[in-house]
Amino acid sequence: MKRIAFIALITGMLLAAVAYISEMNNFPGAVELRTAGFIGYIFIISAIAYFSLHVLYEWSKDAEPRQL
Predict the structure, then answer these.
(1) Is residue 67 part of a domain?
(2) How much is the pLDDT for 61?
(3) Is residue 40 within 8 Å of 16, Cβ to Cβ?
(4) What is the pLDDT confidence band of residue 32, given thresholds at 50, 70 and 90?
(5) Mean of the per-residue pLDDT values for the chain?
(6) CA nearest 5: which of 55, 50, 52?
(7) How many domains does the chain have?
């Protein structure tokens, strides 16, 4: 799962960068690439959410249980 999240992160960064560069340079097809950029942002957010939840899960395993 880590590999899939890492690939999604890299792919999202590439899609967002291509959409940004095409928009700034007024390349033909820049309007259509906005959709790809939005999908890239979703990939980035999803991958970061997975890594954050994974870190929280690892921290919770290391924590000692509370005793009443």
Answers:
(1) no
(2) 81
(3) yes
(4) confident
(5) 90
(6) 50
(7) 1
Within a domain: 38? yes
Looking at the predicted structure, is the pLDDT value of residue 13 above 90? yes
67, two tokens: 């005793």
Domain with 25 in it: 1-61
Over 80: is that where the pLDDT of 67 sits?
A: no
Q: Is 37:18 a contact under the CB 8 Å cutoff?
A: yes
State the amino acid at position 55 in one-letter form.
V
Angle 6-11-15 (CA atoms, 0-180°, nearest 5)?
150
CA 68/CA 63 separation, integer angstroms: 15
Domain membership of residue 53 (yes or no) is yes
- Inside any domain, residue 50: yes
